[in-house]
Specification:
The chain has about 525 residues and is of the alpha/beta class. It is about 55% helix and about 20% strand. The longest helix has about 45 residues, at about 320-365. The radius of gyration is 45 Å and the shape is elongated.
Length: about 525
């Protein structure tokens, strides 16, 4: 519910904090004071376009909100005009307008001359009738079956397309599989071949370096081996003079042995030039590289591709059996869809008549006794909601054919139609604002409207801008809007009124003047229409 409205600055309202009731909230005031500014301020926060002024700032607070945007059940939305641009806030943090609209979705509805888009939306019409008809379980079952039908339909299309190309694709795949299998590629084979190729292609250089190294280490005059031997012989001459030399001699003997082992290993290197093997490796690598490029896969991925091709071939070979199975299942599912759609449509048509009667009953007590309200259910192509196109039709006068609401209903009529629909369907957001709902009515009709609004406020929060005293007396909270003209500016004041102040305002609304007689009349009206004395 909308618990608080804080207006720091908005048009000619400044520094006003309004704490609302969860039930019926009434705003009254003399003609021309700008009672609808409250509606405009809320619409401003929710992103309404308009001519606003620098520094305008409005904040609205919702309680008992269960959403991803709320914090401990509280959701605070605000908008400010800063440097000529709109800045939006959610719980004190900057947000985009799209995010704010998502956060406020299903929290509040505004019903007035410029705020009736829901009533023109046929999806809303369908949702109202479905809710009134308690169709949610059956509709859920239908949507599950319909979704299955759509998936089978898509699968059939894919299978048909594949079927038309099946033989050609099979020929290609079998050729490709044979090509890969003939290659007989082993894991990491390419890497090993490249290493061997690099070795063989550099064999001349390798042979020269190996022979040179053997000579340096052991064969040539003054080789490393000979020089180490000479060092050993010289150190042996003085080893008795210094004990540490013995350990050094041992290290040199090990070094000499290492040189001998390295020389032996180098002699065993295969340095013969095998041109036949080199050509063989080159041809093999060319085969692998060609298929890598062809299939855009590396060598090891080509091995995996064999399994992929084999599975695809098996799938395509079984395709001629798969398509009839899918077609049969699709047809069975389609018949189930039709059966459920017919069932839903029948219920909608039956319940729509009952719905229309109840709406018509409420409209007849809201100064629309000559109007006609009708729910039209036409057949259309199947979608996820069934086969029905549902439209609310209205005519404000006898002798005129009912038509779409946006073509036939005025702003005031739309507000009353909306009220009637809410009363019948009990399907709404938590908070509703009505503006101009009582245009052109009075007397007994006003009393009927008061009772209906009070009835609605038992289940939902209602915020109402009204000039009717019969409605105002039933307020759970009554706010008075006053315009004050100062020397250089005009300001609006909004305050909650109770007791004597409220009696005076009801008296003003009844007779246009406030005196002892009008106040007494106001007290009598309050007593007669108080919640204890009316059957709401």
């Amino acid at each position: 519910m909308l618990s608080q409205i804080y207006i720091k600055k908005f048009l000619y309202i400044t520094d006003i904090n309004i704490n609302l009731s969860k039930n019926l909230n009434i705003f009254t005031g003399e003609t021309g004071v700008g009672k609808s500014l409250i509606v405009d301020a809320i619409s401003f926060v929710l992103g309404e376009k308009g001519k606003y002024h620098e520094g305008d700032f409005v904040e609205i607070v919702f309680d008992d909100v269960d959403s991803d945007f709320s914090e401990e059940g509280t959701l605070i939305l605000a908008r400010e005009i800063k440097n000529g641009k709109s800045v939006y806030f959610i719980n004190g943090k900057r947000a985009t307008l799209s995010t704010l609209k998502e956060a406020s979705k299903n929290l509040i509805e505004i019903h007035g001359q410029h705020h009736q888009q829901n009533l023109f939306n046929q999806d809303f019409h369908r949702a109202v009738i479905d809710s009134f008809s308690s169709l949610e379980p059956l509709l859920k079952e239908y949507q599950e079956v319909y979704k299955k039908f759509i998936l089978l339909q898509r699968e059939e299309e894919i299978l048909k397309e594949e079927q038309s190309n099946r033989l050609r694709e099979l020929d290609i795949l079998k050729f490709q599989l044979e090509e890969l299998e003939e290659l007989g590629l082993q894991e990491d084979e390419k890497e090993q071949l490249e290493q061997e190729y690099n070795y063989l292609s550099n064999i001349t250089t390798i042979k020269e370096i190996v022979n040179s190294s053997i000579g340096t280490l052991h064969v040539s005059d003054n080789s490393v081996h000979d020089q180490i031997g000479e060092v050993i012989r010289n150190l042996e001459k003085i080893s008795d003079l210094k004990p540490e030399i013995t350990q050094l001699l041992n290290d040199l003997e090990e070094a000499k042995a290492i040189v001998e082992n390295v020389s032996y290993s180098l002699r065993n290197f295969d340095t013969d030039v095998d041109f036949h093997r080199l050509v063989e490796i080159e041809e093999r690598l060319n085969q692998i590289n060609r298929l890598e490029k062809k299939y855009n896969r590396n060598a090891n991925e080509l091995i995996e591709l064999i399994d992929e091709f084999s599975e695809r071939i098996q799938y395509l070979e079984n395709l001629e059996y798969k398509l009839p199975e899918v077609q049969k299942e699709k047809e069975e599912t389609y018949q189930k869809v039709l059966q459920l759609a017919d069932q839903i449509s029948k219920i909608r048509k039956e319940k729509a008549k009952e719905f229309d009667k109840q709406v018509q009953y409420h409209l007849s007590h809201l100064a629309l006794e000559n109007s006609v309200f009708k729910t039209e259910v036409k057949e259309k192509s199947l979608d996820k909601y069934g086969k029905d196109k549902i439209s609310f039709l209205f005519s404000g006068n006898k002798g005129f054919q009912p038509d779409l609401l946006e073509k036939t209903a005025s702003g005031g009529e739309l507000s009353r139609i909306s009220l009637a629909i809410k009363l019948v369907s009990k399907n709404s957001v938590d908070s509703m604002i009505f503006d101009e709902i009582d245009t052109g009515i009075g007397g007994k009709v006003a009393v009927h409207m008061a009772k209906k609004l009070k009835e609605l406020s038992k289940d939902f929060q209602v915020i109402l801008i009204t000039h009717l005293p019969q409605v105002a007396v039933l307020a759970d909270k009554h706010f008075y809007v006053e315009k004050i003209h100062q020397e250089d500016k005009t300001v609006a004041k909004i305050k909650e009124i109770k007791d004597n102040e409220r009696e005076k305002e009801i008296a003003r609304m009844l007779s246009g003047i406030v005196n002892s007689e009008s106040i007494q009349f106001a007290r009598k009206l309050i007593q007669e229409l108080s919640e204890e004395n009316i059957n709401v």
